[in-house]
Amino acid sequence: MRIDKLLAHSGLGTRKEVKKLLKSSIIEINGEIVKDPKTQVDPDQDEIKIAGDQLDYQEFVYFMLNKPAGVISATEDVMHETVLDLLELSDIVQEPHPVGRLDIDTEGLLLLTNDGGLTHRLLSPKHHVDKTYLAEIEGIVTEEDVAAFRKGVELDDGYQTMPAELKVLAVDEESQTSNIEITIQEGKFHQVKRMFHAVGKEVLYLKRLSMGPLTLDPHLELGAYRECTKEEIAQLKAE
Ligand code: URA
Known about the structure:
Layout: H1 3-9, H2 15-23, E1 27-29, E2 32-33, E3 48-50, E4 53-54, E5 62-67, H3 89-92, E6 97-98, E7 107-113, H4 116-123, E8 131-138, H5 143-151, E9 165-172, E10 177-184, H6 191-198, E11 202-211, E12 214-215, E13 225-227, H7 230-238
Parallel strand pairs: 7-11
Antiparallel strand pairs: 1-2, 1-3, 3-4, 5-7, 5-13, 6-7, 8-10, 8-11, 9-10, 11-12
The structure holds uracil (URA).
């Protein structure tokens, strides 16, 4: 790839700013100063230094975000704040995208990456990646609901869902609400909400806790994010 592209992707500025850096004779490839932005470089083979410091270039980035309500799982939108607006500028240069969608009012785990291959695998309907959610439900969730979800329920458009594991964590008779945990392996539009709707109940609050091997870091505040660890990335790739 071109050195100016690599430097821009590494967060060192726009292509124009990077050109200036190159002009200032501080960029070295394998010990030689380079000034030409078109110079080809192989980040796996070549040693790149900026003012004497080695550049650690990563082709792919992986971020775990605790999505708050009110932002949408898209890369751009004219009306609403997007999950990318929550990232620092230096983390956007490599153009990560959200892996799947959470509704605007859903909170919790969202993976952002520019690794298209991984995204494709995780979202492929063939892969059946587990997604676990915590929810507050209007209504008393019963053992019949648990059994119905275990078989799969029919959604409003006639689609029969795959089996889902539903656990009732607590019921509050007074407020007629229930706290549950649900694991689904699909990602149909509004799936959890529509599954509860199919058994006559409504989701009041929804938060994703995990996706495949990736579990939401409890230290991440709403709206905060961090890079995935090497172990998390390896587990995701092995999924
Ligand atoms: N199911 C939903 O209904 N909404 C989400 O955001 C995720 C799963």
